[in-house]
Structure formats: C-alpha cells, structure tokens
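Researcher: Structure for this, please.
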Amino acid sequence: MSMLKLQGALLRGTESLRLGLRSYSLTRMKEEARKKILWEQVELMEVLEARVKQLLADHGSEVLMDPVPASGARRAEVLPPTPLPKAPGQNSPAPTLGQSSAARPSRWMEKLRREKLAKPECLRELPTGVLSAPLPQKQRDTPLEKGPAHKRTKHGPAKVSLAAPAREADLESLAATPEPGRTPKASENKPAERKPEPAGKAKGQAIQTEAGGPASPKPLAPAESEKVDRNIQLSLLAYLDTCLHLQQPDRAHRCLAYYHRAATRRAWLDIRMYNLVLHGHAKKGAIREVGTVFQMIEEARLKPNLDSYAAQAMEHGYSLEELFQGGSCQKDEEEMMLRAIRAVQPGFQRPQALVRTENCTVPLLRDFYAKDSQVSYPKLDFTARDLRERFRNQLAMELGNTVTVESVEKKPVTERTLQARKLLAALRTRWRVSLLKNFQESKRQMEMQNPRQLSLYPFLCLMPAEEYVDILMQMLSMLPPPGQSLVILARDLGNKIHSRYLTQKKICSREGEKMWTLYKRYIQLLAKDTKPDHLLPRQYWEALAAKEGCDFSQATKGHTWPISLLVQLGVHLLELLVQTLKVESNLLMPTAESKLIPAVYHVYSFRGSWQVGFIRLHPIVNRLFAEAAETNLAFDAAVIPMLCPPVPWVSPHFGAYVVSPTKLMRFLDGTNQHQRALEDSPRADLFSAFDALNQLGNCPWKINRPILELAIAVFNAKGSEKLGVPPPPSEAPEPPKRPPKDQEPPTKAELKREIAQCRKKAAEMYSMRMDMLYKLSIARHVAGQVFWFPHNMDFRGRTYPCPPHFNHLGSDLTRAILLFAEGKPLGPHGLDWLKIHLVNLTGQKKRSSLAERLAYANEILGDILDSANQPLTGRKWWMEMDEPWQTLACSMEIAKAMRSPNPEAYVSHFPVHQLTSVDLRQCREFSDVDPGRLLQRAATLRRPRAGRGRGRLRQPFAVRRPQDVYSVVAQQVEVFRQQDAKNGLPIAQALEGFISRKVVKQTVMTVVYGVTRYGGRLQIEKRLKEIDDFPQKYVWEASHYLVQQVFNSLREMFSGTREIQAWLTECAMLISKSGRVVEWVTPLGLPVIQPYYRSKSLTVKSSMQNVNLKLSYDVNQKPNTLKQKNAFPPNFIHSLDSTHMMLTALHCHQQGLTFVSVHDCYWTHARTVDVMNQICRDQFVRLHQQPILEDLSCFMLQKYCPRDWTDTGNDRPTAPQKLMKLLSNIPSKGDFDLEKVKESTYFFS
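Model: Predicted structure, token format:
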C-alpha cells in the first residue's frame, strides 16, 4: 500500500510527496501513543497482582485472586521494541519510545519497591511465634507467574542479549517471597534447588491443584536442573572469587546483580556465588551491601547455608557453633565473624576444634585400625633439626615458583656461542620491557570495559605484571623448533596462572605460617631423635591441627577454572606475545637490510582434514637459540621431587606439597564430578586411601650415581636407540632430495608422503630427546641428597607420583637410576633374590622355576661381573637384555655384595620388583586366568569349579613352574589350524610354522578392553608383516583366519571369565542408555565415576583465532555408551588392583617394610621379599573373600533402579525392568578354595 502512495506522490509532484510523508508520520505517532497507553495499563495490572501476592505473604490472607485479562490483548503484541523502564536505583538506562522523550518510572513501582524494602523491618517487629508458626496451605503457596519465553540454541543455552534486561524478571523478583518452612542444606558445593515455572500458564494465572487451591512451587527434577550450563557457572565462580581476592567486592557485586536481574541469567546462579559476594562485603564491613545480597538470595528463592551470614543462618535453624565447624571460611574470615558475633553476644566463645574421632568402617581394615594392632611409626634417618631445615628449603622452593636446573647436555662453547648468548640476552631484555608495557596497556583497556559482564581483567591482576611476563618468557625458551599447538600452549599458560593464584591464596590466608608451626611438630613423628608414636601420619597431623585450632581441609578449597577460561586466558597472553616480540631481519647477517619482523608467528597447519593453529618462532630466533646452546632449564616447583617428607593427605583438598596446589584425584581440566564425589563420601571411607598414599609418599629415595653418569655419557654420545636413549634431532632423517637424472622422479603424492614421514620422525625424536633431557637433568639436580615423591591417584584409585618427569613409574633408565635411601642388610636369602630379580629383568627363563632361575644366574655370573666392572668396554652382555639399564644396575649391586666380606651383612639400597601374577595359572583347575591382570581378577571373582575346562588337572598346584597362557592360547590355535589343514583349508596350510606366542599375545592381552575382531585382525596383521619368511600375499586372509581362532580359543578356555566380562559390559550399556554414567564404590569405600560423555564442541573466540574445544566430560551431555560399556570391565578390575595394592601397602607398614608400587608391580628390599610375598597373598585372599559382585549389584540396584517401580503388566520388558533383572542375576561362582592361593609359589613372577 505504501508503494502505491509513493508512486502517486511522484506523479503529482514533490509537494504531494512531502504531504504524504507527513501524514504517514502522524499515523505512526498515534499508533505508538496507543501502544504506550496500553502498556501502562498492563504495567498497572502487574503491579496490582504483585501487590496482592505481597499482602498474601505478609498477612496470610486466604483470598485468591482470579486472573484478569489485560485488555483482551496478548502480551507479546503490546511490548515495545525497546527496553522497558526500570524502577530507580537499578542501574539501567531509561528506554525511549521511538525518538521521543524517556518515560518516567512508575510511582506504583516506586511504592512497591519501598514496601518491599520495609518488609524485613515489619517482620522483625512481629513476635517470634508468628514467624515460626506454620501457615495454612493456601497461605504458604504463592501463585507462580510464567516468565518470558526465550529460544534455546541447539547445543547450549539461549542467546540472550545481555545489554537488555527483561522487565518480567524484575517484576517477579520484586513480587517474590521466600517459601516458609524451608530446611537448609549444609553443603556449599551443590547447586541450590530452584522453583520451576510451569509451561502453558498465562501471566498472572494461578496454578491450581487437584483440591482447587494454588500449587506450591516445586524444585527442578534432577535431569532438568542439570541442564544449567556448568561451564558458565564455573566461569562465574572463578570471576567472583578472583574479584574478591583482589579486594574488589563492588565489581563482584555488579556482576552478580547483572546476572541476578534477568530470569534467564539468574538460572546460572546458585548459593555459592551469593555467598562469595557476602564474604567480600562482610570483610569490608559493608552491612548495607550484605543486606542487599540477602534480599537477592530471597528473590532468587535460594536456601542459605552455613557459609551465609550468621544472622541469616540462625534464622534458618543453624547455630553459631556450626559456623566455625562446618563452613568453608578462611582463618581471617572466621576472626572477623567472631568479632561481629561478640558485638551482639559479648560472652560468646569460639568452640574448640573437634578432634577427629571417626573410625574406618571398611570391614577389610577393621583389624588394621584396631588399637591392639597398632605399631610404632618407623623413623627416618634424619634428626628433627635436619627435617626442619629441609622443610625450609622446600617452602622456599615452592614460594619461588620456578627452579633453575643445569642441563646435562654438553655442547662445545665457541666464540660464536658466547656471541649468540650475549645477543639473546639483549633481545630478552628488550622483549621483556615491550611485553611489560603492552601487558599493562591491555589491562587498562580491559578495565574500561563494562564491569558488570565477565572479562579477563581480574585474571590479569592476580600477580604483578612482571610475573606474567616471566611466565611468557619461560614458555618462549621451552618452545620447540617445529612449534606447538595454540590450544596446548594456551591451556598450559592458563594452568600455570591458576596454580600460582591458588598458591598465592594460601599465602595470603596465612596458611604458610600455620603450616610451619604444624610441620615443626609433625617432624616429631618422623625424626630419629624423638619419641616413637603409634599414630599414622594422617592421625598425627589431625591431632596437631586440633590442638592449634585450625582445619586446613576447609581453608584450601578452591573453585575450578573451566577449560574455556584457561584457554581464553592463555590465548590472550599468546596474542600479546605474537604482537609484541620483534626482531631485526639482519640479526645474523649485518650486511643485509634491517627491518623489524615478528619473532613469533601464528600459523595454521593441517592435521588430516583439520586446520590447527600453531605458535612458531621465526627461523632467525630458532637459529639463535640453537647457537646459544643455553645450559639452564626452568621448571615449576611442583615438577621437582620434594626435599622433605610430604604433607600427609587428610582431606580431598589438602596434602602432598606445602603450598603448591595438588589434586587428590587426577581428572581433566574443568571437571569436578570426581571432587564432588569425594566430598560427599563419608570421611571415614577415605581413610584407607589417605593412609596408603601417605605410606607411598613417605618412602625416601636417592640417586644411583654410577648409572646416572653412564646414562649422561651415552646421552651426550648421540644416544642409543638400543638402550632407550634417544639421539639428538640432528640425527633425524632428512627430507628426500632431487633424484639423479638417470632415476625416475617420485610422484607428487609419494614425495609429499616421504616429507610428512620425515617431519613426523623428527618431531618424535625431538620430543623423546627433550623428555630424556628433563629426566637426566632433574636426576643430577637432586643427586647427592634424599628426596621424596608425593602421590595421588586417578579416578579408579591407581596411584601415581606427583612429579611428572622423573619418578619410579618411568622408563627402564629412570628406574635404574633410583635407589631406596634407607638400606637394609641382605640377610640369608637377599642375595638369591637379587639374582632371581636380575634373571627376571633379562626377559629370559620366563617359564622356569625359581630354582632354575637361580641356577641360571650362577651360570652367567661371569657376564654379570664383567658388565658391572666394564659396562662400556667389556662384553656388554647387559645391552642385549629386555631391561638393559636395570640389568646393569642389578649386576653392580650383586658385584658389590659378593665383594663384601659378609654378603648377608651387606647393606643394600636396591629395590627388588615383584610383579603380582597369580599362580593359579599353573593349575589347570583354575585355567580361567588371563596373563593380563584383568582376566586374572575376573577369574578370581568367578572361582571356577574343580575338574571343569579343557585338559584340567585334578590335583591343584601340581605343576611347580609358572605357566604362560600366551603360549597356551598359541598352542590351542595351532590345534585348530592342524584340524583345518587336514580338511584341506589353504590358509591353514599356509600358516604352518608361523603361529607363535608373539603373534597372539597382543590380542589376548587387549580382549578384556573390548577389542573387536576387526581390531584384533589389525594386531595380528602387524605381527605377520614383521615375519620375513611369511608370504605377504596371505597377510590379510591369514590375519582374518587367526583372529577367529584366537577368539574361539579364548571362548573355550576362559568361559567363566568371559561370562563376568559380558555381565559387566551389559550392565554398563543399560545404565548409560538410561542417561547416567556408571558409578561404583571399591571395597575400601573409594567412589569411582567413569567420566565418558558424548563430545561437545565449545568455541573460544579471540581476534587471533577461534579455538574449537571438544569436551568429552561435560556432565550435561549424554553418556558415551560405547566407552562406558567397553571401559567398565577393565576399570572395575583396575579398581580391585588398586584396592589390593593399598591393602598390601598398609599391612607392609604394619610389618615395618619399605614398600613402593608401580600399579601391580611391588617393590621392597631384597631382605623382605618373602615377607611382602606372604602379605600380598593374605590380602589377595581377604579381598576376594568379600562379596564383591554382590556388593556391586546391591549398590547399582539402589542407585539406578527406582524403589517404587511396579510391574506394568506389559509383555515386553522396559529398560528399568531389564536393568533390574540383569543386576539381580549375578554370575554364579564355583567352589574353588581361595586359601590355596597362599600356597602359591609363583604368586609373584
């Protein structure tokens, strides 16, 4: 229609056009005026409705309001397209109507706001009985209005304009009243429950119950409440926590108010965020702001907990004493709270710290924790003064953040090298100044941004600017020549900043002073010049902490930074690095033209079909670093072994290092479900894990200097692949050059493939070379002194040393370098165990008896002594063994013992390894045992009956030599092959003489991990290709045939074990299909959660590059069914392995043994091998005498099957019915007597 008017105006002339436009403008103004009047009517109705609800809540009226239509118009049709006006004091710009003047705030809204603020004063004037008396049902239940509808995206929360707050949310928050009679929870780490808004109800309409009255708001269902984006929640927690640490409560308050104002954003808030801001205002003494936050908590319908303000806590049924016992306040916060309480109650006394009196309730350890079985804790070979000095050195090292270690790599120092070092030092000085200037400028720009919304500004103020620059310069020195992925570098930078922030929080909370006081007294338990005590380290520390009135387990709680925040912070710093660092183009060629070029580049590289961002140094800078050949390496303090005994684990938040942050349970960045599970577990159930980790961490170590010096010599002599010492990058294969003219040039695809292989090989060699450089350099750094490895564990309970580079879980060379700091005489059988251990390390005589191994060691005694005396110039027998460096170290120890006047009195520091390998394999009665630990454990759970199975012996343990099940499977496959060959099968005939133990080993080992026939065929195909004599044209057909025969053999030989594996797999499949992950509890009470979810893409945007993160641990995603079901059997067995190890470690302590483990490989002195063997057997039997599968079934039935489930009468069973039936039908057990395991000769191999 408007186009017709425009055409007529053009025909009549310009004057008519102006008249037409004027007429159109008047029509629009009238329409907007009509909408304005209609909007004011709707607003008035909302205010009246809110007023009625407020009167109902204040005076308990039983009158119900009928819904009144708003002028017969739909709400969506009368909303103006601009932001709505807000009441005064809400920090939002006044909206405009077109280009007219701004509308004034409604006086009705102002009156309602004043009455809302005056309501608490009225309530305080009422008698106590009025507040505590329960209201009638109709008075308690308040009609809940439907909030504004927001569209949600496919993969995440709705895209809401954060600059335009919603009017409905403000009206609802003003009209909302807390529900009386709520019972608060004390846990701070669980999101508070919210009140959902029912769908399908118009605004102002009451929700009717079946009885005709209004229904009370109900909390969200678990599946619905989990839809809140936890990544945003963690980012908000981190932002608020950082602001308060920087003494900026106003910035935190503005951010909280911004997200609280709109209903959609308020869904991301929980009580933890309000409590953080409350603590910040309380520290400043801002009472008015504290009241404002409490009003916000009331409007959000959240339940205050122990961390909320004291007065509010008392109103909700908490006592003042509970605030000092169950909250998470730091020491200075508790002192401020105590002063505030005494201002009201002058006679109030702070309750004394409770002495931990919980007892371990695990049946397996009742006798261990019994008072009559307690023994004196073993002393270290150090005085109290020595240990105090060592603690001072460790604390200084951790406070310094970085440790400079001299490199073991030797390069010739020439005049050019000195010149390059001087030039590099000048460049670093210039780069540091430029980085510092640009970093401070970027902070100033961020500070000027909107303080209400999340930004990186607080995270860039956690430390002095010089420390950020030091971190960047350290990263620059460690950057490899090929470059590094942007995501990896950004995540590492974010983690470093987070770690230093947590360390700084501990220091600011005066935890360092308390730690020093407590550790001085804790030394009394370990020092040799003090009185003995029967308490364990955890018990001793808790008793000391109770006397001092402190609880470190609460003070060190921190908020997890999500992976998106870590990457975003790291990308920002990397972008600053790329933009700042410049270098002269003629730096190495002074005669060339000089111009400034970037020293660091951001480039893209293809990895398959993916384009990956890389950070690389300019070739000029790379060459300068190479020519400088610097001799120092910089490491974080937590990478170096500890110089004093670790702080004992007493809670999931406290233990290991002095101030450096450490996780009790290892998990991926950004995940916290494991930490929540540990916090929710009964504290007594974790005692066994704490004590086992403390026992492993308290073992002192020292360096085997002769082996270290030999390893450094080989390392500097261009390495040796045969000995596991990688060569330098200069030995990497060069890319193919142009072929001679008489040869046919390769195709473009072949040339590209060869170049890619050369680059891959060079990158691998560089990575392995640097890894070995770090190990050897750290070893030489701590050589000559005693050190310790603090331990933690993964989600299955398997233990690991905290220092990542150098520890006893490393390679053959790393293990050979380590010795026990405490020595013990060999005794009558110690030398024999050293010889047997040496034969085990050679990889020979695997199926021989112990007596035969000892006899073989005596036969080769000449080679052993020659290797010990002339390792690099003699016959070099040790270099041909499976574990050459450990073989050499053991040979040197045997030589020293034999040279001593009395070998039995020789004090040995050498650790003897024993791999747990149940001797049930030697008994065909129990042939359901896999050589791997997994089928072995499953077979023990099944306990097969005697006399069953293929070719079983009737008498148990009749064979007194270890049996190799890999060879047994290979023999069974050979029987099948011979039968098929007789029947004329060509491929069976072609395989004659080629079926060996090596061909089938990998497939047999990985079958319990869920390897498929396809995967097994690839494994066997790889082994067949390694056989030179085998016809390569038959590889595919032969691998396809052999994988079928291997699976047939396993099915026949391990029928019972496969039954348990199938039961576990099917349980996990049904559980994950129901939308939940698989969880269980180990026999020691440790909670286990499988963190396998469907991948979720998350994009972190920056001006340099948008980083796409694939998160596979987001709890809001559905479980990954394939990973859940395939990983459950091995993870469950690994959790039993860790349980057995912890039991063995604790009972070895009770017997006074030195004990260390590498998963299922146990270490001790040669003198105490027999005692450790007996303890291991006893604890294995005790563990498997427990109803493990029955307890697992009961736990899963209680967790995953609804209690109120009833039979629906349908013929087709539902998913819950299938799961309940499956969990109830536990695989049957045999009648095998587990006590016979104690008679096993080869329980260790």
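Researcher: Any notable elements?
Model: The first strand starts at residue 402 and ends at 406. The mean pLDDT is 76.
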